[in-house]
Amino acid sequence: MGAPVLNGPFTMPMFRNFVPRKLQPWLYIFIAVTFQLSGGLYMANLSHMVGETSLMREDLQMCLYCNLAGMAVYFPLLFRMKFRFTNKTLLTAASLGVIVCNLIAPYTTFLPLLWTLCFIEGICKIQGTFEALSNIQLWMTPKRDFTVFFPLLHIIILGSMQVSSIIATHLGYYMHWSYMHWFIAGLMLTDLLIVQGCTRHFRIVKKFPLFGIDWLGAVLWAILLLEVAYFFDYGEFYDWWNSPVMQGLAVAIVITLGFCIGRMLHIRHPYIEPEMWSYRHLLPILILITLVEAFLATEHVLEGVFHGSVMHYEEMVAMQLDWPMLAGVVAGSLFAYWWMHVRGFSYLRLITVGIASLACYLLTFYFVLSADIHISQLFLPTLCRGFAYAILSATFMVCLEEIMTFRHFFQALSVFNMLHMVVGGVMGGALYGRWLSYAVSDNMARYGAAVDRVSFSSQPFAFDRFIESFVPQMMEVSIRQIYGWTIYACLFLLLLFLLYDAPVRRELKLMPSWRSLRKEAAMMFGKNLLIRITLITRPFNIFIGH
């Protein structure tokens, strides 16, 4: 197996001997980045897809939420899959899944199929990313220090999101939006060549069967998440409570939630265990990440309207803002690393820094918001947004790992990402969309009342030119108003953090070994199974240095 010497340097026994040792972890970083570049559909080309297909904007946005829901719901299964299948099998299956979904998605407009493909692609995306990065965790941080791992992880994840947007915009502008899907398929083929040619089947532990998994519970949680996303995504289209569709869906959400809770409380091994909710500080973290995502939803709604309807930016112009966002993400992740690992400062105060950066983004955008600005004036608020997003995402995940045991960590991570990836953003987007619709109508009624025959006759002017500039001005005023109220809410949250100082502990607990994790997993399903399972193989003992 090419096992390393006990307590020797980090090695990756799944690689064949001809692959240079220094190159091995970088190949897995490349694989992780390619998975993070992938998606079901690519929202950077949203306008092209709306114009070419018969689908509405809400239909395509729902594809994004299905993709994110697939990633969020799948978290509790990641280690079970790792204990059951080899590294090569998992990476191969994930790559093939992404290829199939990317080759079919651009050529179908049947929404149930399209949403299913995006959901499956999200599962494959998170499985491939996790499998690649979990095998180089000891290379990134030999002591399994999550104050190192999570900031570096978010450079890869959040940075890849911006790079994916940049690539998709260029391909959609110079060629066709479907070329992004072919590009991702090509990257996945490269991953397959690396996996098939450079790796072999290797298990870090003895095979652990896929029994005791609450598959029905997983389906129920996924349905609940998609129902919530559909409700807020299509709310404006159906006119909210005036539509029987929204009324019926609200009832369905309550019923599905009841089934999820009932199953969680009445079966032996539910998909998300009730004990998971009992950890101290868990609910504040979940509430905070939802609020942060709601604040950041201004990017997708208000900034999008400002760029398109007020400034009339084309895709290639608006894409320039992805670069300061990328710089902010890298800077925020490195700052979080310096704060938590190098200096060992309080996590709570780092969250305060993140919220202060978020407030700076809102304030800066509020004061520069005008139809007369140059796009370079939006670089600073965009950088602040990326800086805040990276700090808060990395810090919340470190705090979550600190307060949870391993048994419940990935279940909590699943709930965390349901709120982080889907619920917070879609709720905030729906709120801002509804608010903007009301504010524009109200301002047009207020300011339009001053336009009459008397004002025209006193100083004649071109009415058509006036109307052409009047609507963008009203949208600009409305966006500024909403940003103002959002700033008040963000500053209020920042004030609460400044007044309340009860930090999550600063000393990291010891990360358990693979041996103890597998033993704990086996004990969850009965002592008889534990007797029949050999705990671990000698190559893996040598591999992890125990």
In short:
By secondary structure, this protein is an all-alpha fold. 72% of the residues lie in helices and 0% in strands.
Walk me through this protein's architecture.
The protein has helices spanning 24-37, 46-52, 57-74, 78-84, 87-104, 111-134, 137-140, 146-174, 179-198, 215-233, 244-266, 282-296, 299-310, 315-318, 322-342, 347-368, 379-403, 406-448, 453-458, 463-499, 514-523, 527-532, 538-544. Residues 1-7, 502-507 and 527-546 have low confidence and may be disordered. With 546 residues, the protein is mainly α. The longest helix has 43 residues, at 406-448. Helix 8 (146-174) packs antiparallel against helix 15 (322-342) and helix 8 (146-174) crosses helix 17. It contains 23 helices and no strands.
Strand and helix layout:
Elements: H1 24-37, H2 46-52, H3 57-74, H4 78-84, H5 87-104, H6 111-134, H7 137-140, H8 146-174, H9 179-198, H10 215-233, H11 244-266, H12 282-296, H13 299-310, H14 315-318, H15 322-342, H16 347-368, H17 379-403, H18 406-448, H19 453-458, H20 463-499, H21 514-523, H22 527-532, H23 538-544
Task: Tag the structure with descriptive keywords.
single chain, 546 residues, mainly alpha, 23 helices, globular, disordered N terminus, disordered C terminus
The SSE order reads HHHHHHHHHHHHHHHHHHHHHHH
Instruction: Find the count of extended strands (DSSP E, 2+ residues).
Output: 0
What share of the residues lie within helices?
Answer: over 70%
- Uncertain runs are 1-7, 502-507, 527-546
Largest sheet: none
Protein structure class: mainly alpha
- Number of discrete helical segments: 23
Radius of gyration: 25 Å
Distance between the first and last residues' Cα = 17 Å
Shape assignment: globular
**Residue share in β-strands:** under 5%
Give the averaged pLDDT, no decimals: 86
